[in-house]
Amino acid sequence: MKIQSLLLPLVLTLAVTAPAKAQEPVGVQKITVTSKARGEDLTVLVWYPAQSGGEQVLIGDDRIFEGTPALQDAVKVGGSFPLILLSHGSGASVEKMAWIASELAGDGFIVAGPNHPGTTSGDSTPEDTPKLWQRTDDLARVLDKLLADPDWSTSIDPGKIGLLGFSLGGAAVLESAGATASLEAYADYCDTNPQMPDCYWFKGGRAFRDGEEIKVEPLDLRTIDKTLFEQDRRDARITSVVAVDPSVADAFNEQSFAGIDIPLHFLNLGVAGKIDVGVRSAHLAEAAPDAELDHIADAVHFSFLPVCKADALAFMKSVGETDTLCTDGGGRPRADLHDQMAGLIVGAFRTDLKPGN
After folding, report:
1. CA-CA distance, 230 to 67, in Å (whole number)?
2. How many angstroms from the chain centroid is the CA of residue 58?
3. How far apart, in whole angstroms, are the C-alpha atoms of residue 322 and residue 9?
4. How distant, in Å, are the alpha carbons of 69, 96, 126, 342 from that of 22?
5. Cβ atoms within 10 A of the Cβ of 2, count?
6. pTM to 2 decimals?
C-alpha cells in the first residue's frame, strides 16, 4: 500500500472534535465545474463565511492526517468578499488544504479549490504532472463558474481575486499571474538534479489510477508539448498571488516576472540559503516589481500538509511506507508551523485584497 492510496480524500466526514480555529463560522460546499478542455467535471470545494448552525463535518480526515472542521452547506453571511482560488500540490488534494482554506474563510474570504485530475491523490501520473496549462485552465474555469453563478456571484467582489498555490500548485498560480517557464530548462534541471522529488517521480515508473498503484514508462520531459508548456497563461482577473514552495522554480523565465504588475508573495519552507533548488524562490522575487519572500524555519516542503495523527508514523511504517510526510525540520510541531504559515498567507491577502481593514 503506497501513500497516494492512503490519502484518498474523505471529503465530508462527521466530526466530533474541537471547533475550527477560524475567527468566524466557516461553511463548505462541494460543487462541480465543467472543464471542456479536460472533457470532464472538476470536483471543487468552496469555503466561505457562514452563519452559525448546520452540520459540522471534517474535511480531509483520513488514517494519516487530521481533518479540519467546517459547516456543511451552511447559510452564507451576507456581503461581498474577496475570492481566493486554491491549487493543491502534486499527489495531494484540495481536501488536504482545508486547514488554510478554513483560516482564510474565517477571516472573511471565499476560498475555492478544485481537485486537479491527473495530479490528485489516487489519480496522479508523471505524464500529467508537468502539464501546468491544465491546472491554470482548471483555475480559470472555476473562476468563470463562480462569477457566472448567481448563488455565488453576489457574494464575490470580482475586483479582488487572489490565487494561493502549494508546490505544483504554486507553479500554476505563478503562471496564471503571467510567469512562463522553459521546457528545456526544466529538463536540464532534472538532468542535473535527478534526486529532486519531482525529477525522481518522472523517472520512477510509478503512477496512481483509481487509488491503485500502476506501472508506467519513465517520462522524458522533452516529450511534453513545448508550445503548451511555454505558453503565456496570464489571467487578467487575478489581483494577488501567494506561492508556497513553487515547483518549476529553477525553470521559470525571470524576465517574465518583470511584466507582472500585481503583488506576488513567495513563501519558502525552511531556512534561507538552504532551500532546495527546485522550489527556491529568491531569484523570482527579485525579478518581479512587486514581490516579497518569507521563510519558515523548522519547516520542510511537506509541512504544508495537514497535521498528522499521533500514530501516523507507526501506521505508515506498518504498511511499508517510507515517505516522510509527517516529519518536519525542527523542534516545533506542525500545528505551530501552520499558525505561522497562515499568519503570513492571510496577512498577504488582507493587505492586497482588504486594504484598510
Report:
1. 37
2. 19
3. 20
4. 10, 16, 36, 11
5. 15
6. 0.92
Output the DSSP codes for 219-244: P-GGGS-HHHHHS----TT--EEEEE
User: How remote is the C-alpha of 262 from its chain's centroid?
Assistant: 19
Give me the phi and psi of 286, to 5 degrees please: -70, -30
Pairwise CA distance, residues 255 & 143, whole Å = 27
CB proximity list for 256: less than 8 A, separation 6 or greater: 178, 179, 180, 232
Alpha helices in 267-333 (DSSP H): 282-287, 312-318
Report the C-alpha gap between 9 and 13 in whole angstroms: 10
Q: What does the alpha-carbon distance between residue 289 and residue 239 come to, in Å, rounded to a whole number?
A: 14
DSSP β-ladder status, 240-244 and 264-269: parallel
* Torsion on CA atoms 10, 14, 20, 26, rounded to nearest 10: 80
Q: Are 341 and 244 in contact (CB under 8 A)?
A: yes
**pLDDT tens for each residue of the chain, 357 residues long:** 334 434 443 333 333 333 334 468 999 999 999 999 999 999 999 999 999 887 999 999 999 999 999 999 999 999 999 999 999 999 999 999 999 999 999 999 999 999 999 999 999 999 999 999 999 999 999 999 999 999 999 999 999 999 999 999 999 999 999 999 999 999 999 999 999 999 999 999 999 999 999 999 999 999 999 999 999 999 999 999 999 999 999 999 999 999 999 999 999 999 999 999 999 999 999 999 999 999 999 999 999 999 999 988 888 888 777 667 888 987 899 999 999 999 999 999 999 999 876
* Phi-psi map region of 137: left, alpha, beta (phi>0 left; psi -120 to 50 alpha): alpha
Q: Are strands 123-124 and 68-72 parallel, antiparallel or unpaired?
A: unpaired
DSSP H or E stretch at residue 216: none
